[in-house]
Amino acid sequence: MAQILAPNMQWQMNITKSLTPGKSMISSSNAWTSLLMKQNRKGSIKTVTKLKVCASVKSENSTVNRVGQLLNLDVTPYTDKIIAEYIWIGGSGIDLRSKSRTISKPVEHPSELPKWNYDGSSTGQAPGEDSEVILYPQAIFKDPFRGGNNILVICDTYTPQGEPIPTNKRYKASQIFSDPKVVAEVPWYGIEQEYTLLQLNVKWPLGWPVGAYPGPQGPYYCGVGADKSFGRDISDAHYKACLYAGINISGTNGEVMPGQWEFQVGPSVGIEAGDHIWVARYILERITEQAGVVLSLDPKPVEGDWNGAGCHTNYSTKSMRDEGGYEVIKKAILNLSLRHREHISAYGEGNERRLTGKHETASINTFSWGVANRGCSIRVGRDTEKQGKGYLEDRRPASNMDPYVVTSLLAETTILWEPTLEAEALAAQKLALNV
């Protein structure tokens, strides 16, 4: 059996809320009677230790209850002030950071919020002698952890002079999505975020025997049962929290590797896709933090005959969705084939360990596409082929990709970028042979 790790204090609060405040989970009279009987049989030294344990259990439950009551306290009737949790992306490009501030009244738009600053030298985003980085609020969501009028705020990052710092990928994405040609095409995205849950102390997938392996893949994908599904409560809690926050989450399921899950966000338009994925990731990080489980976005968390973790990105433009859109899709695929290296370099660190040509992936070195083929770089759905319009699925992005980068790059390559006639003709020949 897998090692079962005890949830941390925050997670226990949710469990103990239903208990009567101040009442121990152990019946007091029964506990004392039992201890006195053991004292007569086995001596006083062991009895003293056990009495301390009993008192500790009672005291700890009372403390957990009191802290839990304060965490769930609704302050709305007593003040107009709200808590805004400012969220940004750290120096690694994948780590999320956040801090809280009090706002004088509820807000409906990020423009009502003040800019803020943080120590960029502590996040790998600025030197110590000039460490101030400025947060610009860009989108707001309801806070599922604090409730009420409290909010989560996704921000991007700038120097005090107003220049975007190098890790601010949202800035360039917003420029692409504000281009009139892109705006006219109303780009839609549906992003499938895969992730792996790890046991806290051993960094081994949830549900796996510590230092060993479960049975081979097969029964775990969308599986049901204690021997097939590991972490469902976390997935469900995340699902509801995202709906509460206003994230456009469209579904979730257990994945092929045990301990691995997926949620889908979309269809989302333009820059919204990146905002929603990043906040959904933040919420998931907070939930796993409370559950005492580690969230991993590693593209290949376990080497060997196990599926990796991707972030498949479904994409369409207005022209693709209109009549005759299948030809537009094929032209977009041609452009994507010509910029394969540029896309791969931006699709997530460590992706070469995942894109091996096995486990429902294409080789990282070869561009391919096909209808209903999950072993290709780009998959076109059978319904899209049949109806002559629809969308394409880019299966190359890794689970740790930056959604601002991937979504804007897809729009740039398929809407704004035009290849030379010679390159286009050569690529068309190669793709014809591929099909």
UniProtKB/TrEMBL annotation:
Reactions mediated catalytically: L-glutamate + NH4(+) + ATP = L-glutamine + ADP + phosphate + H(+)
Enzyme class per UniProt: ligase
GO terms assigned for molecular function: ATP binding; glutamine synthetase activity
GS beta-grasp domain residues: 82-162
Protein name per its UniProtKB record: Glutamine synthetase
A GO BP annotation: glutamine biosynthetic process
Complex and partners: Homooctamer.
The EC number(s) this enzyme carries: 6.3.1.2
